[in-house]
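Reminder to self: tokens first, then the designed residues, so the page reads top to bottom the way the pipeline ran.
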């Protein structure tokens, strides 16, 4: 019984630290907003250049849909195969 009271006291204390309007809640909110802004930023642009091919080499790609079997069920996902000419 004493262990339950101890756990309840720790949980209740933690909840008061992150209660709305407290300084800890403001820090958490600010950190969460910064993470959301970074998550929505565009990814860096990647330039792909061929090795040991002529200056007029082109990259050709073929995209098709493939069934993948997952734990949640079968899903259809795009697969891309690329090569240089």
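Designed residues (85 positions):
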């Amino acid at each position: 019984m004493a262990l339950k009271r101890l756990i309840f006291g720790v949980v209740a204390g933690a909840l008061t630290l992150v209660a709305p309007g407290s300084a800890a809640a403001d820090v958490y909110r600010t950190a969460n907003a910064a993470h959301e802004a970074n998550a929505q930023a565009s990814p860096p642009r990647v330039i792909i250049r061929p090795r040991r091919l002529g200056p007029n080499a082109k990259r050709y790609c073929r995209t098709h849909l493939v069934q993948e079997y997952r734990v949640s069920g079968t899903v259809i996902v795009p697969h891309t195969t690329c090569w240089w000419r």
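Residues 2-84 form one domain.
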